[in-house]
Fold this sequence. Notes:
Layout: H1 2-30, E1 33-37, H2 51-57, E2 66-67, E3 73-74, E4 78-83, E5 88-93, H3 107-120, E6 132-137, E7 140-144, H4 152-156, E8 165-166, E9 172-173, E10 178-184, E11 188-193, E12 206-210, H5 214-222, E13 228-232, H6 234-242, E14 246-251, E15 254-260, H7 270-279, H8 282-289, H9 315-324, E16 328-329, E17 335-337, E18 340-341, E19 343-348, H10 353-369, E20 372-377, H11 381-387, E21 392-398, H12 406-413, H13 427-436, H14 441-458, E22 461-465, E23 468-473
Parallel strand pairs: 1-12, 1-13, 19-20, 19-21
Antiparallel strand pairs: 2-3, 4-5, 5-7, 6-7, 8-9, 10-11, 11-12, 13-23, 14-23, 15-21, 15-22, 16-17, 17-18
Helix pairs in contact: 7-9, 8-10, 12-13, 13-14
Amino acid sequence: xxKIKFVLSAAALLLVLSCSNKESGKAETERPIYIGQTWxxxxxxxLNASVPWSMTSSGISETVYxxxxxxxxxxxxxxxxxxxxxxxxKALMKEEAKFSDGETVNAKTLxxxxxxIMEKNKFSNATAGIITFMPLSDFEFEIKTERPxxxxxxxxxxxxxxxxxxxxxxxxxxxxxxxxxxxxxxxELVLEPNPYYPNAENRSKVIIKLxxxxxxxxxxxxxxxxxxAFTVTPExxxxxxxxxxxxxxVDAGYQYFGIVNTASNILSDxxxxxxxxxxxxxxxxxTALKGGRIPSGIFASYYKFAGNCxxxxxxxxxxxxxxxxGWIMGSDGIREKAGKKLELKLVTYPSRPDLTVIMQxxxxxxxxLGIKPYTEIVxxxxxxxxxxxxxxxxxxxxxxxTGDPSFFLNQFFRSEQAKNFSRYNSxxxxxxxxxxxxxxxxxxINYAKDIQEIIFTDLPVLYLVDPQWHIALSDRLKNYxxxxxxxxxxxxxxxxx
Length: 497
């Protein structure tokens, strides 16, 4: 009898513990996940410039194809794609993905969204030109590109191409794992689980808080007010690690580079651009950032299509180039030519703190060359770039978010494209980009390397740093795996421990 009582007592204890664990798990799910970032989404318009990227990063929208943690393309919408000819494709859809209002995504809604994006967001036209989509049945549609695109899946993964539906009231619904509860512009973004996304019951509400000040974000994290600080500076990362906090260091996939205004009075001169390229010591940036690599081109070193360019610091050579170009050192330490001072306007933005560190060091390096720098930090960096009111912009971009080099190269270096902020115009590069759209991936690798060599010669951009990022996590998110830079910060796998 005592044995039976013991067994029953043990069973009762296990039941209590099981219920307790379930309640604990439920409580953890009900408690919001707090994320600190240096930027937050302030609108939900899928047709507005780079807003679609921000929405996907925040877990609200999804592109037709996306990257997984291993860098492989996958789609919740497309079952298979068949190529018909150079410009035409046929897609067969899956029948499972739903919008956040519960309606299944079909060919009509997907094609309608894509056609509107192609018409209204010029960033979507970079790789294959304007693409037209036509439904053939409920879950089958035709795709026709303006220019050949060997990998239509990679085009579908470009950040502009998000799946959405416009409602009768003019608002939009999306397909991501989260929906917007509240946007408090300049302060916070509140998200709740999309009930029609798989495993919604296991997700917590997410609150993304904006921090313009790195020190304030560090204090909030250290005080237990944040589950994730994305990202923290190397100095902060070191302090947090010393305090036994969880900090993950990852290859960003992003590249830090200088966009040269080739139409400016001074940097239109290739001699000045070349002198800058030799006179900037990238090792100083890496030392200050406590991590990263000297780049070999415009792509992260782990990609097969990364460049083979060799950046060399040679201050004396830089000075000699400027001397021979007629820029003579003045008594005030500033070079002058035909009565004009060698002055450059450097611009960057606060949401990438690493860039402000680089800009401070770069300004000092320029002074050593006899160049007088003027520095400016602006919130709307793309607006500044479009205005042309700069000489050199320090910029950060994930240059291969689809695992393919085509998107970035077309966006930034094809003549007249929306993000060709350097005003670069190269018939040779345009021709290579055109040919690149018609070749398989293995051949595309060589095209990408060749284009990077031409860019290294012409210098519409200056390669600066292949960086690493530091993300601080609470114990609740210790299993969180950041990947693809900040393209998927809030993703379907953002579960608490």
